[in-house]
Amino acid sequence: MFETSDPKQPFFVTNKVVLFPNDIRILIKLYQPLVGATAIALYLTLVEDFNADAILSDAKGIYSLQEQLDCSLKDLFKALHKLEAVGLIKTVLIKNEIMGQVITFRLLRVPTSSEFFSTPLLASLLKEKVGVTTFHNLSHTFARENKKKENQVNGNKSGRDVSASFIDVFRLPGQEAISPSLDVQEAANENQTHSVAKASVNEHDSIDWNFMKQQFAIYQIPADEIDKKREQIRGIMQTYGLSEQEFVDEALPCLHGSYELDMRLIEHTIAENYRLDGTRKRVKQEIHNDKEKKTPANIEDLNSKQQEIYQAAMSKSPSEFLYKLKKEKGGFVYASENQILNNLHNQYGLPSDLINVLVYTCLSFKPGLSSSLAYSIANDWLQHGVATASQALQYVAKRRGNIGGHKQKRYYTNKRVEKGTDWSKKKSKVDKNVSSAQLKNFFKNLEDKNGMK
């Protein structure tokens, strides 16, 4: 994989690819979701940049591609690498005495839709990108179109081929038919061209699969099981940065006499044990360094409640301490809580007294010991140099004091209060000038308007 920060880096397109309308459709519908619009635009631009009369000295700078695509150099190479990965472009770096280093692009033809869906890596990535529903719709659409290109005839496979052969129709001199003349041979050589290869996924892999197969064969895991789950193995190795031997070592505890790899169990085990030895050593070293850097907390500075907790934390094991606190609260200890204590002590290397204060702190927030809360508090303590039970008690008290010391300001907006009408202070107005005839006409009109007759 090549990348440069020099926009003047020369490039040269070495071959021509003829694109038909169906090729463009496959590029947009099937390849664009994988590589992005910039990569498709780059492929089409390189197709148009081919010049049959050009020589290497005519090579242009990569900046000309930037101008046409209107993108940064970083985005340009990111798009190029995607095209290389799916096999639409082969990039070769050559050295020329005059031009220096030149990037040459060999374009490959767009595969048919049937070839695309027959490539598991491409089809799997497309499903990941567009979702199951859209993936099935695309597959059905292209499959239906391909079937329309040929009419199925009953009995076609069992029929007899009665087509005329070349010799049946045409006649050549005997010697010419057996051995072509020199003129024919020269014409054949003169018209020899390199056919454009079909694009195929670049599966260049740095993983030594043969070594891994040999290691698993010792435990009676067949080689085809490794091939079948190659993509899952590669994904786990890339996520956790594991070598072949490290992956085998991590997977061994998950083999229970079966001839198959339980990938879900292996992934779960690696997630729990990832860099466990290094983490445990690092945590112990940090706690040791924090103890040396900081002046030990004076127990007399703790209040009576804190001293009581401290004494219990120093004298009891984490399980006993947890049971004591739960009993005082009227609760009970469940298995997962003891598992958390075991992980904190054996996997991460926290001392028992610090774990006990951690348990006390967690139970002051929740009725049960939660792994997410326990690990979050433990990380906070380590990041702030808390290494002993006394330091933890003082740190917790300081944090709570800071939180309690901030008075929350309440902001009130001027509210408009709607005032009601005091009808007791209102007096009715009587117009004494209205006659009985006018009043009668008023009610008559009111009845006529509301249809009350």
TrEMBL record:
> What Pfam families does its record include?
DnaB_2, WHD_DnaB
Where the record annotates domain DnaB/C C-terminal, the positions are 324-395
Source organism: Lactobacillus acetotolerans
Protein name as catalogued: Chromosome replication initiation
Family per record: Belongs to the DnaB/DnaD family.
InterPro entries the UniProt entry points to: DnaB/C_C, WHD_DnaB
The Replicative helicase loading/DNA remodeling protein DnaB N-terminal winged helix domain is annotated at: 7-243
